[in-house]
Amino acid sequence: MSDKPQGSGESTLTVVLALLVNLAIAIMKAIAGVLTGSAAILSEAAHSVADTFTEALLLTALRRSDRPADRRHPFGYGKERYFWSLLAAVSIFASGAVFAFYEGFRTVFGEPEEQTRPLVGYVVLGLAFALESVSWTQAFRQVRAESAKHGKGFWAFLRESDDPTVKTVFLEDSAALIGLVLAFSGLGLHQLTGSSVWDGIASLAIGVLLALVAYILARTNRGLLIGRQADPVMVRAIWKWLGDLPEVDAVVDVLTMLIGTDRVLLCARLDFDDTLSAHELELACVRISSELHTSFPDLDEIFLEPVPRTDPDLRRRVLERYGI
């Protein structure tokens, strides 16, 4: 349990750094876009503005999700992180992708546009790439450290992580670096060929990139908001741990749900030894709950339900859930 504040602090550092970097980059890109008349650079400016809004939403997510449980929300506010991260995904699409598509279609199908001061664009894009790399490096470092702590590969952890903030920053920073390369290519091809169509194509490609990132993040947070189970490795370990207890004849069902980052709700249905008295059963439940908290620190709330394994209705529901 002690590592949770540290993880939260690391996520906050990652988000704040990304916010400051993107704010500076957005201003530079906007100025360069106006001076050069490049649709791709203007699209990248909108991209950075969207990223800045995204980081502001993620900071809100971090602050509000750390509030303690109360009477109205007995399981805490952990899922607020998922809600605000979902809004961040919507922001990326609405503020970034839509503008990039607009600029791209306007440039490709509109009147040819003359390129001015391309050198300004190259310099700004180069500076933006250097600054963006700082934010990306911090996000990459955190994802790598977290994946090592959880004993998973880099991409597997990124796919299964229950912390959408660091995933959002890493993906949007990765998209930003790719977007800068696309904008640089569009600017260069416009200068070489004299055709602004290349600039418009680069803007459309940036729009597709942002829409893809927004979709991935929205899908991730949708699953977390609906109520995703805990890491399957952890679930199997809990199942085995419970099955090895001397008081338990059989583990009938294990239900888990993520209720926040590194916070898991557990409901275990157990067929206890029939020779246990009511008092012994109560003491066993208290001891098992305490030992579960110690063995699996991510468990936040634990419910143990004594049930007979032969109950036909319960057995049917379990079989239907797991598709057996």
TrEMBL record:
Assigned keywords, A-Z: Membrane, Transmembrane, Transmembrane helix, Transport
Annotated InterPro entries: Cation_efflux, Cation_efflux_CTD_sf, Cation_efflux_TM, Cation_efflux_TMD_sf, SLC30A9
Membrane topology: Multi-pass membrane protein
Primary residence: membrane
Membrane-crossing residue ranges in chain numbering: 12-35, 82-102, 122-140, 201-218
SUPFAM superfamilies assigned: Cation efflux protein cytoplasmic domain-like, Cation efflux protein transmembrane domain-like
Cellular compartment(s): Membrane
Cation efflux protein transmembrane domain sequence ranges: 15-225
Any one of the GO CC terms: membrane
Gene Ontology BP annotations: zinc ion transport
MF-aspect GO terms: monoatomic cation transmembrane transporter activity
Entry-linked PANTHER family: HUEL-CATION TRANSPORTER, PROTON-COUPLED ZINC ANTIPORTER SLC30A9, MITOCHONDRIAL
NCBIfam families: CDF
Protein name, entry field: Cation diffusion facilitator family transporter
